[in-house]
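thread: overnight batch results

M.L. [08:02]
morning all. the overnight job finished for the chain we discussed friday. pasting input first so we're all looking at the same thing
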Amino acid sequence: MTLPGESEARSAIAALQPTGLTVAVAESLTGGLVVGALTTVPGASAVVRGGVVAYATDLKASVLGVDADLLAERGPVDAEVARQMAAGVAHALGADVGLATTGVAGPDPQGAAPVGRVHIALAGAGGGRSLVLDLDGSREEIRAETVRRVLVLLAQAARAAAPSGPRGTVEGSRRPEGGHP
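M.L. [08:03]
and the structure it wrote out:
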């Protein structure tokens, strides 16, 4: 079975490996597809800490630490929610980098957010970044393109954080010694 984003996952893993950085993923609309794509890559266990599928809005607050008032005010499809999800999963899973996806894949809009409105975010690796995507297509196509785009974001951040010298762990990396599956 081929998962969306497999080639982008290979690029992201290859970009992360020389940095010593680890990644954790918080997913809503992608339902585990991002971490699934990452873990298909041989050697992923050296850099992937894990993932949290927080599909229900209340889990974004209780598990990932997203501000409950923000969720009540703006709903789960929001740039700041995505940023807090990314930071929250990095903290919860002890990773250097957090990724997040939240949005509307359809078939129906969610509140004021139309089908295809997606927020992706990255926290760590020298800062943070978030993007708003307005995607077209079926539910499956929106989810697949979201996976591809967030993995490209991860690869770009990892390349920007790559050491110019010999390979090794970046100072301050929280990756535990050994214990990878």
